[in-house]
Design brief:
Chains A, B: GO terms for molecular function: hydrolase activity. The structure is a homodimer. The first copy, chain A, is of the alpha+beta class. Chain A has 13 helices and 25 strands.
């Protein structure tokens, strides 16, 4: 393989003409995301490592390396290795993004402990296959061995693209692991698959990173093997749980465990793109369409059922029991990003933005040391405060937890934030497309030579004014495209006239891509104005759980009403949102007119069903403040709702 | 102990003055319940036994008896013994109710196989404690050993009261088992408890049946031990799951796994009544009140969460994901019946009726050979037809299943229907109170001598006219009370005037107990007229999941709209119920005026949230028929809803 160009390091690199920006092409310098990337670097990465040291999840590798697994009760679930791999991936991106040598040293030390645990034939797993453990691949439905390997491969991909390539010990270990998987599960070998998709994206991307088509072929094999009901059931869950009910290319909608469904969909796009399988790509697009139309929450969150961490039926979108696992948000971004690269359809970028602001950014606490696992849109009882050293046994509750018994989300947030700049823009020929907005500098290599330098200045998402100054450009026409989100009716773009003729007049820009093609001169400015006044958002009447309610959004932010902002003594259950006066901007949230209903009077012990229809709108009004959903529960335990009943 | 009077055989027999009718005092001769009791006898009992033979759950006892457990993979969950015991209990009541000698022979043959598996010290369980099995009581949180024993004790209670008393082999085995439990878990022994309450009701009732206060004391010990967080967690579920979070006497509401919460509450009433513990009784009444006010579905169903089969938060009453386990319905009847006997409060009888008609009767298919486990109030996608020999791996879905992987419900329905007449009426001194209405003959022994004979004639619940003819009465004043349900505003009672003076005029009867005290003469007639015109029922506005909807009830029956009754091509999601014309009676259901809304138009791939408020009421109207909820899905897979949106 060629030595990688670390400027272009990015998680997803299909061999198509459209590509995402590399970490070295984008520098986020301020605003919403810069602070989160900084907190991720300064707090979350270390936090994750400390917890996994404390719980022995990293020492599990040392024990395998030392051959002392026998007679030892291994801490952690069978998939805890994957958290170590996701942390390694996050560290690799972070090192690639900043060049921080301390981060690199941390990576190398941790990677060495993983590599030491690898068996001679390439198998690496701390839960199976060693003295006192169940045999390798003895529980493919629930054992998560290939899932873990997939995350190891993704960590190696990050390392290859940000540093030295295959000479790196972790990369070499990943190659041995991938070869082992191909031997064990390749054509003519064991015709089996893992209960939790993930090996597929790992193999596909490692194949891209190393130019090794056998890995892509193995990923394709795993994708095609799923959907034929061959996985043994797990507990009382049917084959739909792990998408083993219908083959990917035949399915019409996402169903079952959301993270599994989405990791699988991401892999299907990878395979479709790499093999030119348009039917498979169309299948994932069809599933995305139907799932976004009927099975996706306002926040972009996916998954409505706690029972199987899964999608529910069409229109089953309960605010209170919305699961919206943080990892499903990460996985949804993975799918939509791949589809955006494959199709250039703006709707994928829109969903990425919605999900990043309202699921991924909602998970970590401001200090980066506690997380939401589930992200419901309504909380009826305030969560109990967790102590700093409490592991949350449950994946739910109204308080962010430092760590979980199943702790997939913190490291998933960490790797996503560490690679965030790679999702900022796409490049195709001489066209650069800004998909997300954050203050910063881009220096993008155009595919046909030269670079386009951009300085983005904005207070997005609170303000919708985005100023893009050209800092360098080739001496020929190039195209700059700016995303006009679907919610931004009334947007406008201002671009320079022909060279030297000054700034043009604002022209309306419909949702979609607003393109400006010019021979740009450094100093030229393109501005985008997106209306970010708070707006009312009404649910489709087929969503039973949200009937009679309205939400407030502002730009890409979903807002919520939290009990901290209620007048003393008011129960959130008694608040009605009066939609007749338009909500007004207030800080980064909004102020609305509310009406406070007295709770219905009923004799004691009476069921909550009566002969009278709902009463008239209450007279008692109050102005209430809504805050961005991603910031809820930052002021201590609270009750909260995104959708508020109307009078 | 005294030889029992089998005429008075009944499941719950506290030593208080108020008692329930014995199976020998009531003969149900027709109508809604008679057909169900008959189907239970002719189909369900045999069906349950066939399935448990086929799956090897009964053979598990043979294997223990033969000492051949080693090296054998035991079929069934760890609690499958309890299904055999519940079937035995059902057979015992059925024999008591009808005197059918074939049923008795079936009981004796099955009981013999259970008794043969008992260890010398009284322990009996086919999953623990024998060669190749985990040790006894090695997993109290999830092992269900004491739970199983509790059901064995309840079967023995049924046997004692319907036949010969302690000389019966199963009764003798139960006594040995109870003594074993008292030795192992009594004062000074192991201070532990079972994750699933049930041993408590079993011990308390066996104590009553045998006059053995040590069993009651042991039940009280178990009740008091719960709520102190001593049970090891099961999977990711916290102590609330098995009510180990708060002591029973301190709790304000039911929470966690619904069946566990309700079996425990039933036991707490037993203990409170037998020990004169008014504080404990008040605690359960308080929990009932709060739970019925805020955590109970319109059908009487309890449990809103699939994840832990549990109660949710206050106001968390989703129609689509309502769990409303059939067993929780049975357990709710158990609790309310005990509270009714303890307090004479009519609201307990009201909830029993609601639950019997809309949960317990909804579970079995008309032929008694398939069952609902969960009883949601909305089904969005038609269930797939199950083959007659399919075990349903899941406790949900829109089609009744012949059997379940966890098959607690069929035998629970069976034992409840077999003892149904015992819940018909209460007796206290010279007062006889009809709590439920069914055509039949009662011959009730008055506590202070003599009997009151009643012939009930009615087409209840379709008609609200109930005629009670006195067939025998002592020559002194006695009181006959009739229940006027809470929904029956405008009811009236007609009673005979003084002897020989003919029938009196109808007088209004408010919800509660309508009492008639007379020196009755055979031939006297008391009539009750309950309005059973279909009525609209509106949910409390704090129930988010039901906002903007209305339901239709008729007498004690909750009605539902099923897709079979929609015009061709109409999607149930597009139906609105126009509440302005009153619903009209139609068969045993109702006809309503509906408006059919066209589905909202939205661009493909758009999230189901928009900038426009709900549109005006659709013009397209149709008359639609609603059927009793208990009969839904009898015409093949269907979509269904109880609460229908209003225009």
């Amino acid at each position: 393989m060629r030595h990688p160009d670390t400027r272009l390091a990015r998680p997803v690199a299909p061999g198509t003409s459209r590509r995402g920006t590399g970490l070295g092409e984008v520098r986020v310098t301020g605003g919403f995301w810069a602070s989160r990337l900084e907190t991720n670097a300064s707090a979350t990465l270390g936090h994750c490592q400390e917890w996994m040291e404390r719980l022995g999840w990293i020492a599990n590798f040392d024990r395998v390396a030392a051959g002392t697994t026998a007679g030892h009760v291994r801490p952690g679930w069978q998939f805890s290795d994957s958290e170590v791999y996701k942390l390694l991936e996050a560290l690799a991106w972070e090192h690639g993004r900043t060049g921080d040598v301390t981060v690199n040293a941390t990576f190398e030390a941790l990677a060495a402990r993983v590599v030491a645990a690898q068996d001679a034939d390439g198998y690496v797993n701390t839960c199976y296959g060693h003295a006192g453990q169940a045999p390798r691949y003895s529980d493919l439905s629930a054992g998560h061995e290939l899932y873990c390997t997939g995350h190891l491969l993704q960590a190696a991909v990050a390392r290859i693209r940000t540093t030295a390539g295959p000479a790196d010990p972790l990369v070499a270990a990943a190659v041995r692991a991938a070869e082992h998987v191909c031997r064990e599960f390749g054509p003519g070998a064991r015709e089996a698959l893992c209960g939790h998709p993930e090996i597929e994206v790992g193999l596909a991307e490692l194949g891209r990173a190393l130019g090794e088509p056998r890995y892509t072929a193995q990923a394709a094999l795993f994708v095609e093997r799923r959907g034929h009901g061959t996985l043994a059931p797990v507990a009382l869950l049917g084959p739909q749980y792990f998408q083993d009910d219908v083959p990917v290319r035949d399915a019409g909608v996402w169903r079952g465990h959301a993270v599994r469904a989405l990791y699988l969909a991401a892999a299907a796009v990878d395979v479709a793109v790499d093999t030119g399988d348009d039917e498979l790509l169309a299948a994932v697009e069809r599933q995305w369409t139907r799932s976004v139309e009927r099975r996706t929450h306002l926040t972009g969150g996916m998954g409505s059922r706690h029972q199987d961490e899964g999608f529910g039926d069409d229109w089953e979108l309960p605010a209170d029991r919305a699961y919206c696992e943080t990892c499903a948000g990460v996985a949804s971004v993975m799918v939509s990003w791949r589809l955006l690269l494959a199709t250039d359809d703006v709707r994928y970028a829109d969903l990425i933005e919605r999900t990043l602001y309202n699921v991924v950014a909602a998970s970590p606490r401001a200090d980066g040391r506690a997380f939401f696992y589930a992200n419901p849109l309504q909380q009826r009882t305030p969560g109990a405060d967790l102590l700093p050293d409490d592991v949350n046994p449950r994946a739910e509750g109204g308080v962010r937890a430092p760590w979980f018994d199943v702790s997939c989300c913190p490291t998933n947030v960490a790797r996503t934030l560490a690679s965030w700049p790679a999702y900022t823009a796409t490049v195709d020929g001489d066209t650069v497309t800004l998909a997300q907005y954050a203050p910063g500098d881009l220096d993008v290599r155009l595919d046909d030579g030269g670079t386009l330098g951009l300085r983005v200045t904005t207070r997005y998402p609170t303000s919708g004014h985005v100023r893009v100054q050209i800092t360098s450009a080739p001496d020929r026409p190039v195209t700059l495209r700016l995303r006009v989100p679907h919610w931004a009716g009334g947007a406008s773009v201002t671009a320079p006239r022909a060279a030297g003729a000054g700034q043009g007049d604002p022209r309306p820009a419909r949702p979609g891509w607003a393109a400006v093609r010019r021979t740009f001169t450094p100093g030229d400015v393109v501005t985008l104005d997106l209306p970010t006044a708070p707006r009312l958002t009404w649910p489709d009447p087929r969503i039973d759980a949200l009937r009679g309610t309205v939400a407030v959004e502002r730009g890409p932010l979903v807002l919520c009403l939290e009990s901290h902002d209620l007048p003393g003594g008011t129960d959130l259950a008694d608040v009605r949102l009066d939609p007749s006066p338009a909500p007004r901007a207030h800080g980064d949230g909004a102020t609305v007119r509310a009406r406070i209903a007295p709770p219905p009077a009923a004799p004691e012990g009476t069921p909550p069903f009566g002969s009278g229809p709902p009463g008239p709108a209450p007279d008692d009004t109050a102005d209430l403040t809504l805050i961005p959903y991603h910031r809820w529960a930052e002021r201590g335990p609270a009750v909260m709702r995104v959708f508020v009943p109307t009078p």
